Structures are given as structure tokens and as C-alpha cells.
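Allow me, if you will, to draw on your knowledge of protein folds for a short while. I have a record of one protein: its chain in single-letter code and its fold written as C-alpha cells. I remain grateful for any guidance, and I place the record below:
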Amino acid sequence: MSKIKVMTDSSVQLTPEEVEKYDITVVPLTITIDGKSYVDGIDITRSDFVKKMNEAESLPKTSQPPIGRFVDVIKKLTADGSQVIGIFLAKSLSGTIDAARQAAEISGQSDNVTIIDSELTDRAEGFQVLAAAKDAQAGKSMAEIIDHVKKIRSTQKLEMMVVNLQNLIKGGRLGALSGRIATMLNIRIALQMPQGKLIVAKKGRGKKFTRAFDERVLKEIADNKEHIKEVGISYVDTPELMEELAEKIRAINPAINVLVAETSPIIATHAGNGAYAILYYVE
């Protein structure tokens, strides 16, 4: 029986220990800051990226891995006859998944490579990747792994708070006029990603809006506390505040494993300073 290997992209939120233990292949995205390109996670760390982003003259750009990089990875993973399952960040956020599909065709391995849109990114993508990798190590079939991944994907939640809209304005995701008004009024936005589509769930002003956001998400977790095993909290530059939030989740149910970590450049670029996300799924 052929072995099943797992690959994903560098927007995923995984610990180095998880990557090593479950033999996960992470294909890095490319980042460009003021004309200089970096390979995500290799030439630049997440914390270094935020520093460079804040010092940059213009908004950094992130792009999917070159197709050639994907071709090399796929050829290497399938060289021993293995099958590959690739789980990537939402198509609505990046062309990474299309690049992976093209690479599978170019390498002549389309029949041996299964590509899945996580419909999310960060730790939510990580939950799916970990499930696939654990299933593969347990000897489950490709069909069983795909079914498990889709089951997790169907109940996943991403709740994101953007407190500084400057990067969204710079990136053209808010019109110039509405952007200026939002900044003057200290507008913050809550984002969600149902079925892989990024939407503004709510808008509000100041810290009061953020507190209400936290309280709502904590209540949702409390209402499902027996059916949530894992929660990811990802942030741009507020580690202490996020640890405080994690402690509130642990107080709801100490059995919930909470991973607090810096988010990827692709999220930090658009979400900006102070942004954070809470990610989980219900079993």
C-alpha cells in the first residue's frame, strides 16, 4: 500500500514540533518588501516581517509559491510511489491552491496528488493539516482522510478583529473616502470566513467594540465547551493580550488546548497592527 504524505503552505499555523512529528511538508510563500523578496519562514521570521512591514515605505506584497517550487516538492514527495494530499489557504485569499494544481499536472502526478481548499488559513488550516497527517500515520485511506478533513472544515470558525484599518486602506480594500472616515471615527471591524469568503461581520468604534467581540466569542466557546478540543489565537503584535485571552478560554474548559502564536505575513499585511483571530472547530 502506498504511503500518504501531507503538504501545505506557509500561511498555516503549526508548531515546529508538529511539522516534524507528523512529517508535514510546508511550501513557503514569497514576500516582497520595498522591492526586496523573501521566502516566508526561510529568509524572514514572522516577528521580523512585522518590524519590516512597519518600517516599509509601501505595503508589502505576498504571492503564492512559484509553480516550479511546487513541482520540485511534488516530484520529491511522489518519487517513492507515495500519494500526496495538499491542504492550502482559501482560494479567496491567494492563488496558492491553483499553483499547486498546475504543478501536479506539470509534474505528471495529478492522479497521485489530491488538493483541498481549507477555505481558511492560519490555525484553522492547521487543524485540517494535522488531522490529515495523523490519519496518514495511522494508515487510513485517502478517502477516509478527505472525509475527516471536510468534516472539520464544515464546523470551523474564524473570528477576527481588525483594530487599525491603515493596511486595508493602503491595500485598496477600503475606498479612500470611507478609509479616511473610518480612521477618523476609530472604526474597528470584525471579520469572518464562512465557506471561504471573507466578510465584514460587524463594525464598531474603539475598545468597547473589541471587548464586546471578545465576550461574544468566549460565550460561543463556552456554549460548545464540551465539543471544542483545540483553539488557535493568532495575532500580529500583541502577545501579552492574547495570552490573557487564552487564559479566559482555558478557564472555560481546562481540557481545551490553546495555541497562541504570531500570524503569517499574508494575514499581517492586510490586517495590520493589533489584529488578532480566534479559530476553532466543533466536534
